Amino acid sequence: MSGVERPLTIAVAGAHSTGKTTFLARLAHELRHRDFEVATVADLGEHALRVGLPILFSHTYSSTLWIMARGISDEVATWPHIDVLLVDRPVPDALGYYLAALDYRGEPADEVALGHLRTLAAQHATHYDLIFRTTLDREIPLGTDKPRDNNARYRRLADHHVGHVLADLAIPHRLLPADGHDAAIAHATEFALHRLTGSGAGPAADPRERCAHP
Predict the structure, then answer these.
(1) Which residue range is the domain that position 143 belongs to?
(2) pTM of the predicted model, to two decimals?
(3) Residue 189, in any domain of the structure
(4) CA pair distance 166, 146, nearest whole angstrom
(5) Which is nearest to 55 in space by CA: 156, 172, 201, 154?
(6) Residue 160 lies in a domain
């Protein structure tokens, strides 16, 4: 967004246990090796649990709004201090998880509340320069390093609805398959070099790809 002073921002959305945190840790290492100041805004699911909010298939409007607002606050707090911000779950991701929870429970959405969340997600997404969306590989099991729901149906719904939100809100993004991390790290590093220093190969056009969910 022109006129707003902020760091280059790269985000990764997608279902749980699809490699987002591992990918961002590798990318942060690569960018720091290039002498960039890097910060990461982490997944807020565990924090939400600690303050007594439901997550995963129990998500509510309130828990979704809290995650979105807290994520925005955490992102903005880094802006004056760094070159590159990495975001584990951009704001539209939370909307996808909420829709997946409603779908899982068979509940209709409150259209007024949903419109509020959609507006917030769409407006804040303009602050992301590059978004990756992981693709679910059902052969890869859920991780054990965080509290996880092992419900395979909800995980599939989360993957679907996160992709749908990005497509529905016309938010450009690139797909990140489980076997595509090396190429994505190379792309993101070149993107950062080009945008921040003018070096690197640089894309001929906007490297973000609007990818409709399959």
Answers:
(1) 8-197
(2) 0.88
(3) yes
(4) 25
(5) 154
(6) yes
CB neighbours of 201 closer than 8 A, spacing ≥ 6?
190, 194
Tens of pLDDT, residues 141-198: 655 555 556 788 999 999 999 999 999 999 999 999 999 999 999 999 999 999 998 8
- CB neighbour list of residue 71: distance below 8 Å, 6 or more residues apart: 41, 44, 87, 89, 90, 91, 94
Neighbour tally for 50: CB within 10 Å? 9
> For residues 167 and 211, what is the distance between their CA atoms, to the nearest angstrom?
7
Q: Which two tokens stand for residue 15?
A: 């279902």
Domain count, the chain: 1
Residue at 124 is within a domain? yes
Question: What is the amino acid identity at position 182?
Answer: D
The first and second tokens of residue 90, run together, are: 């951009």
| Span 5-35, pLDDT tens digits | 899 999 999 998 888 999 999 999 999 999 9
Tokens of 87: 């975001």
CATH number at residue 21: 3.40.50.300
**Strand partners of residue 84:** 8, 38
